[in-house]
C-alpha cells in the first residue's frame, strides 16, 4: 500500500500524440508522444496520476499503410523537475490510404491510456487533407490492490503478434513478434474443426480429446514465441498461479493452447492446456478489470422453446439464488421486453441460457442470441439506450454456444465481449463477461454454470472458481455416456482473475 507521502507526490499528467496529417507513400514521418504535467484544477478524466520518476511504457502499433521502422516500444519516465517529456517513433508509409496509429501507455503492465491517431498516406503531389482523426481514450486508474501473478500483453498488427509478459514480482519480458497469416480465418477454422468432432461413444470421446490436445499443442507452438513457451512451462502450476491475457482479438482461443517443450533427450513433451495450468482469465486493452463484482439484482433470460435438456434445471438453480436479499427477475425472452430491461440499467447480473451463434467471420457484430418465437438479439443491437445495462458494471454470463467468439466489426473487432467490455469507451462496462468459443453440450454446460456460482458464493476469486467449474464440467456424465472432453475448455472469461463477489449487504448498499 502506498504511503501518504507517495500519494501527495502524485500529480496529473496528460498524454498526447502528434504526427503530420499526411505523409507521402515511401516517406517516413515522426510520431511524438508527450507527457505534460497539468494543474489539478485543469485536469480531466483522461489524465493519469503519476509520481516523479515513475516509468510509463509507450507502445505503438501501425497498420498496413503505416508501420514503425525503428522499434515500437519506449520507456517514458515521469520527469522529477521538468513538467514535460516526449519520446519519438519513426513510421514509414507503405501503402496509399487512410492509416491508423494506436498508442498504448502501460504502467506496471496495466493499460492507463490509449490514443488513436489518423494519418492520410498519399501519392506524390496529391492535395493534402486538412482534418486529422485523433481520439484520446479516457481510462480509469489501475488498481492498487493485488495483481495477477502473470499478465500477458498481446499486441496485434498486420505482421502478427507481439508479446510482453509482466509479473506481480516485477518481472518484465518482451518477446520478438510472431509472424502470422490470416489469423482470424485460421482461428475460425480451428473452432470449426472442434465443432465437427463427435463424442457419442467412449472411443469417439477419446479420439476427440486427443485431437483437441494435438491441435492445442500446435496452436501454442504456432502462436507463442519459443522463449515465452519455456517461461510459461516453467511457471505452470495446476492452477495455483493466476494468469490474465490482455488482447484485443476476438478469435484466438488462448485457453486451448496446450503447453509443450522438448526434454533433455530432444523428445517433445505435452503439458496441460493454459486454462488448466493457470487460474486464467482475459481482458481487453484499456482500463483494468474491476476487483469486485455483484450478484445482488440478477436478471435471468431462458427461452422456453430452446429444447435444451438442462434449461429448466438451470433456470430453477438460478432462481434459487434469490436468498438473503438477493433478487432474481425473469425477463421475458423476447426482443422488446429484453431491450426494455437492458435500457433500465437496474441489474448488476445477467444470465442467459439458450442458443447462440457467432455470425460470419467478417460480421462479428452479427453474433446472435436466439430468443423465443424465432426472435433474436444481435450484438449490433446492443447500442443506444440499451447500453444503460452496463452502468452497474454487471456480471454477464451467456451460457450458450459460440457466445464469446468475435469477428471483424465496422471499426474493429466485433462481438459480445467488445460490446460489453467497451475498451474504447468511457469507464462504464461489464465487470465480467463469460461466454464460449465453440458449441457446448447441455450437461457439461449446466455443470459448469452451477459449479461456478457455487464457488463464487463461497468466496473464491473468479479465476480459481472458473478452474473448479471447468473440472466439474470435464467430469460430468449423463447415465452411461462418456465424459464430455470438449465443453469444459470452450469457456472464456473476461475478468480480473483475482476479482471476488461482493458480500451481499455491501452489494445492496452500493446499489441503493
Structure description:
The chain is α/β, with parallel strands linked by helices and 512 residues long. It has 12 helices and 31 strands. Strands 2, 5, 7, 9, 10 and 11 form a 6-stranded mixed β-sheet that branches. It has a 6-stranded mixed β-sheet with strand order 21-20-22-26-29-30. Strand 27 (407-408) and strand 28 form a beta hairpin. The chain is globular and about 70 Å long.
Write the layout of secondary structure elements.
Layout: H1 4-9, E1 11-18, E2 22-24, E3 28-37, E4 48-50, E5 55-61, E6 66-68, E7 73-77, E8 84-93, E9 97-107, E10 110-122, E11 134-137, E12 150-157, E13 160-167, E14 172-179, H2 183-195, H3 202-223, H4 226-235, E15 242-247, E16 258-262, E17 268-273, H5 274-277, E18 279-283, E19 292-293, E20 297-301, H6 311-319, E21 327-330, H7 335-344, E22 349-353, E23 356-357, E24 368-370, E25 376-378, E26 395-399, E27 407-408, E28 413-414, H8 416-421, E29 432-436, H9 442-457, H10 462-474, H11 487-490, E30 491-494, E31 500-501, H12 504-511
Parallel strand pairs: 2-10, 12-15, 15-18, 19-31, 20-21, 20-22, 22-26, 26-29
Antiparallel strand pairs: 1-3, 1-4, 3-8, 5-7, 5-9, 6-8, 9-10, 10-11, 12-13, 13-14, 16-17, 23-24, 24-25, 27-28, 29-30
